[in-house]
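Colleagues,

For the teaching module next term, I've prepared a clean inverse folding example: a structure given as tokens, and then the sequence designed for it. I'd like students to try predicting residues themselves before seeing the answer, so please don't circulate the second half yet.
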């Protein structure tokens, strides 16, 4: 029996990087939040993610914590390079150059030097990142963090979510009543299970023995320049050595070979020494072991009613290109503004449909990028030439060849501009598309663009400010020609109480990049609309971007696009939402005919205003027309 009840607007489960970022972003938009977290206050996580992407750093800049984050991580002069050697202390045969923290903003040479952003990527392990964002969240008056607290169960109705949580030290049970609940509770998410979401995809892509060690003498043994990630390649073992603090703590990944039965079938100590290239006399201390499977799994839904999932709770994949945690941070920033728009009263609940419509397809796509990269890496690891450690010309040839291969495969994941800035939302119910195709992107390649759905391209303003620093908290109308009358859009936004800032974009860089005179940028810095003048019906545009647009048309377009792209998922969704919904309603009536009619009618009413409404009889024709056009 619960001893007390707490009320909050949004309950977040899990204070990992995703939950904390969501809480800070919501608080920044004026929403009070409660987080429940199993761990002790400030207890660091296992050393996992080492890379804070440029896009995540842009988010943290907006939230006022980028500078604090830049101060943690590897020592300022520690090279962030990725090197390839026969062992950690062996012969180097390739190096991907990445500027160190001190030179991050000045060193434009090399494949990772040029980033069109005020916030290039940052190398800091999660054990350093999380305490900074935790302390920042803790200090915010509208964020309450309940540590040593675990969610046990949840129930929802049309108005609220009621969660039952337990204090792990005292056993005390509390009820937390919220308008919305977001599960950011990691790969083994309780919330994901509670909403009946299933992980689908590839359960095992690779198996990795992971050992966190302390070895102060290691740094001095290498014959080459230091690097953040040292990849050891020899025929006995292939693995990585990651510098965690740049002094004495290292993470070692030992990749299991296909014929090795399980984690215990490989002698951990022998594997570590082989990867490092050291003998039995070398001393190191094991700090922790957390063997892991590389997977490609995505939840088949990100939402049920008032409950959402984000981050590892919604997707898990091999974190190549640093896009495990960073994809979760992107979920958090997408969901945050949608929730805040609704809770702050300027958008209907329908705006929340955009979360799944935007994040699910892009998550699927990114997971496949990571998977494709994993397959190349698995191929490379399995094809180490016998002469890789040989002295003389034969060994030199083998190393040069392997060096080229390692560089060519991996430069794309370490310098992954495409994953940061190429991503776009092409099937959103709240974006006004203009028929222009989105520019293609890959792991590393992208074309900045104002096609609706793309990230609002960053430029430096003539007064030296970053465009992102000049933009408003919510919507921003960027005007490239000060002569264009924006009053119709401003008036329409005011009428609907949509916060809208107008910024005159005075920048030489914008020429050729911003091809229209007006660009409407969303609160998450993606383009919502563009044009040379305000649309004739400015109110209709404002309604569309706040989730109150014409229901059937927008939703049909979204679902028909989704149908072409993801047939299986679409059909499953159809069965789940329509058939089961109708069947559920049918059980409550007596006559079979009446029950069918009533079931369908009730189902139409139940899903009115949601994307699933298109399955209801009047709109199904539109769906079919859309599918065949
Ligand atoms: C070895 C390794 C290396 C990685 N490297 C990278 C990288 O370089 N780049 C990258 O982007 N990603 C990387 N990742 C992935 C990254 O660590 C995760 O994607 C990231 O931690 C996910 O953040 P999250 O907040 O979603 O979940 P988590 O970090 O797992 O946080 C979930 C939180 O929820 C809490 N919790 C769980 N259940 C409950 C409950 N029932 N009640 C209350 N609280 C609960 C947990 O205690 C935890 O604090 C790596 C992962 C691994 C394993």
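(Answer key — instructors only)
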């Amino acid at each position: 029996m619960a001893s007390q009840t707490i009320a909050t607007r949004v309950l977040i489960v899990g204070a990992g990087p995703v939950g904390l970022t969501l809480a800070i972003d919501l608080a920044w938009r004026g929403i009070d939040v409660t987080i429940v977290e199993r761990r002790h206050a400030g207890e660091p996580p296992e050393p996992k993610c080492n890379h804070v992407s440029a896009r995540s750093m842009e988010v943290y800049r907006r939230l006022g914590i980028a500078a604090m984050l830049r101060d943690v991580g590897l020592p300022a002069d520690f090279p962030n390079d990725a090197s390839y050697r026969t062992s950690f202390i062996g012969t180097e045969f390739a190096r991907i150059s990445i500027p160190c923290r001190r030179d991050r903003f000045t060193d434009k040479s090399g494949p990772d030097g040029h980033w069109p952003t005020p916030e290039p990527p940052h190398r800091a392990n999660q054990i350093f990142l999380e305490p900074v964002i935790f302390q920042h969240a803790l200090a915010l008056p509208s964020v309450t963090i309940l540590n040593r607290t675990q969610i046990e169960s949840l129930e929802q109705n049309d108005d609220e979510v009621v969660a039952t949580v337990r204090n792990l030290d005292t056993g005390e049970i509390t009820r937390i009543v919220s308008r919305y609940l977001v599960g950011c509770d990691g790969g083994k998410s309780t919330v994901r299970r509670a909403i009946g979401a299933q992980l689908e995809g590839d359960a095992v892509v690779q198996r990795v023995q992971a050992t966190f060690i302390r070895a102060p003498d290691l740094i001095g043994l290498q014959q080459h320049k230091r690097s953040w990630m040292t990849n050891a390649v020899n025929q006995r073992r292939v693995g990585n050595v990651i510098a965690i603090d740049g002094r004495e703590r290292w993470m070692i990944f030992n990749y299991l070979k296909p014929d090795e039965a399980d984690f215990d079938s490989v002698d951990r100590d022998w594997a570590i020494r082989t990867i490092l290239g050291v003998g039995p006399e070398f001393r190191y201390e094991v700090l922790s072991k957390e063997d892991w499977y590389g997977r490609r799994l995505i939840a088949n839904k990100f939402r049920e009613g008032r409950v959402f999932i984000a981050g590892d709770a919604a997707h898990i994949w091999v974190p190549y290109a640093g896009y495990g945690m960073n994809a979760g941070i992107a979920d958090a920033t997408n969901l945050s503004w949608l929730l805040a728009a609704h809770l702050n009263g300027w958008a209907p609940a329908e705006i929340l449909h955009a979360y799944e419509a935007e994040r699910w397809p892009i998550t699927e796509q990114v997971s496949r990028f990571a998977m494709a990269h994993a397959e190349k890496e698995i191929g490379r690891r399995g094809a180490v030439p016998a002469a890789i450690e040989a002295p003389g010309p034969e060994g030199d040839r083998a190393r040069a060849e392997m060096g080229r291969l390692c560089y060519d495969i991996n430069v794309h994941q370490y310098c992954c501009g495409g994953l940061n800035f190429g991503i776009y939302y092409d099937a959103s119910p709240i974006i006004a598309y203009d028929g222009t195709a989105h520019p293609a992107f890959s792991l590393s390649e992208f074309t900045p663009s104002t096609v609706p759905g793309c990230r609002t391209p960053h430029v430096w303003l003539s007064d030296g400010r970053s465009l992102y620093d000049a933009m408003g908290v919510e919507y921003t109308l960027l005007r490239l020609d000060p002569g264009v009358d924006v009053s119709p859009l401003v008036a329409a936004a005011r009428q609907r109480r949509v916060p809208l800032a107008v910024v005159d974009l005075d920048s030489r860089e914008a020429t050729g990049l911003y091809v229209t005179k007006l660009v409407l940028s969303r609160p998450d810095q993606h383009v919502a609309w563009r044009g040379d003048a305000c649309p004739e019906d400015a109110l209709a545009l404002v309604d569309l971007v706040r989730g109150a647009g014409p229901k059937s048309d927008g939703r049909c377009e979204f679902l028909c696009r989704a149908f072409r792209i993801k047939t299986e998922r679409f059909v499953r969704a159809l069965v789940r939402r329509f058939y089961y919904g109708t069947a559920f309603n049918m059980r409550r009536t007596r006559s079979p005919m009446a029950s069918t009619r009533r079931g369908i009618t009730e189902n139409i009413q139940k899903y009115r205003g949601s994307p699933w409404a298109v399955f209801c009889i009047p709109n199904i024709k539109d769906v079919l027309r859309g599918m065949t056009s």
